[in-house]
Amino acid sequence: MSDWFSDGAPIEAIAADDRAAQYGDGLFETIAIRDGAPRFWDAHVARLQTGAARLGLACPPADVLGRELDAAIDHSGVDGNFATAKLTLSAGRGPRGYQRAADTKAILRVGIFAARPLPAANYRDGVEVRLCTLRLAVQPQLAGLKTLNRLEQVLARAEWQDDRIFEGLMLDTGGQLICGTMSNVFIATESAYVTPAITRCGVSGIMRGRVIAWLQSAGIDCEVRDVGIDELFGADEIFLSNSQSGVIPVRRCGQHEWTVGAGTRQAQALAAANGVPECRS
Fold it and tell me: Residue ranges of the domains in the chain?
């Protein structure tokens, strides 16, 4: 049975002249499916629409996206109570060359996959991360978007094979902390939370946005600004956010160690209270 669907029908392949395959010309969203429903659906749709507008692509309306997702879940054979959906929006098929044809039509595809829960110890004790050698290129036009071109993340993830390392943290070419290969980063001090600005490069994660909003709704300061490596290593606590798994504490990066303290526990509690039960202690 196919994992992928388009226009409500299963697909096994895409055309060789699809611009997604040729140039990474398009966008994607990776969505947690819990109890048969997409988590934070409105936020995913909004980011996809924002990205499509910035890339000059025609994004299907929200109701069409929802119908396509529901049909894929129903026909996938995957347990919809705990699954992962991937929506890709390709710029469509076209002739060789970077310029899109005037009549090119965007193509939506939906993949449904079994989700893999993280060990409880990751939430309780924290995970080990590393600092990636590869630097993210600065390109404000694409900052925040989940484009189909993920070569920087592919190369960064190839830097380690050690299963003990959960994630790699990435700096930009100016040496500022941006994000992880698959996550966003928060640091906590006694007085505030801070997360790196995603204005020059990196992906503005859905869970990142939720965590910021939850903290602010609780009357807790969360700064969004540049973060240098010294500030990272000097922080009281570090945690990661990801749409699939919520809030994950960090306990070690190389020779640097952190405790899983009250700041991280508070962020986990807010996530658990707002639809991310994986974070429940």
Answer: 4-114, 120-275
**pLDDT, tens digit, 9 for 90 and up, residues 119-174:** 999 999 999 999 999 999 999 999 999 999 999 999 999 999 999 999 999 999 99
Q: Give the tens place of pLDDT for each residue, 72-106.
A: 999 998 998 999 999 999 999 999 999 998 888 99
- Written in H, E and C, the secondary structure of the chain is CCCEEECCEEECCCCCCEHHHHHCCEEEEEEEEECCEECCHHHHHHHHHHHHHHHCCCCCCHHHHHHHHHHHHHHHCCCCCEEEEEEEEECCECCCCCCCCCCCCCEEEEEEEECCCCCHHHHHHCEEEEECCCCECCCCCCCECCECCCHHHHHHHCCCCCCCEEEEEEEECCCEEEEECCCEEEEECCCCEEEECCCCCCECCHHHHHHHHHHHHCCCCEEEECEEHHHHHCCCEEEEEECCCEEEEEEEECCEECCCCHHHHHHHHHHHHCCCHHHCC
Instruction: Tell me if 4-114 shares its fold with 120-275.
Output: no
The fold for domain 4-114 equals D-amino Acid Aminotransferase; Chain A, domain 1 (3.30.470)
0.85 surpassed by pTM: yes
CATH number of this structure's domain 120-275: 3.20.10.10
Q: What is the mean pLDDT of residues 16-38?
A: 96
